[in-house]
Predict the structure.
Amino acid sequence: MIKQAFVAISLAIFSGTISAQQADPCSELAGSALGQCRGNQQKLQQQQLEQLQQQLQQQQERQKQLDEQQRQIQDQLENMRLQNEVLRKQLEREKPANQPTQAQAPATDFSKTPEANSWRTDNPWYGSDYAKTEFAMRYAKQLRQERPDLIGRAFYDAVSAKVNETFGAKK
């Protein structure tokens, strides 16, 4: 609104300055011709003023439209922010559901599950070869962090593959 008032005042001053700078076209007339000329001058000034007011109204309308568009954009941004927050919370809730539960997680001591017992039978070095056993335990912890989706016999086989790769194949 301040911008619009400033524009209106500027236009009024500008038009007044232009009128004042022009020579009075009626100055050399007298009598009824002078009256008619002054009347025409007033009509012309009135028309100019009406045009300026119309331009000001148009500018005010445009400003209202821009303000409305800005408000709509801000509303859309706020809605998107809220949707993002809801999705983030939903992801946080679903994240634990996607991770294996404690019952599904591979045991790193190789003795708590049927798969572990079977694996120990296939890998007799476990528990008798200190270096291989310690390496397997440490690698199992690392593998659990890197690949939480790897469970069961596949997990144990990955550990024994790494042990064999590091220490050489079974003797």
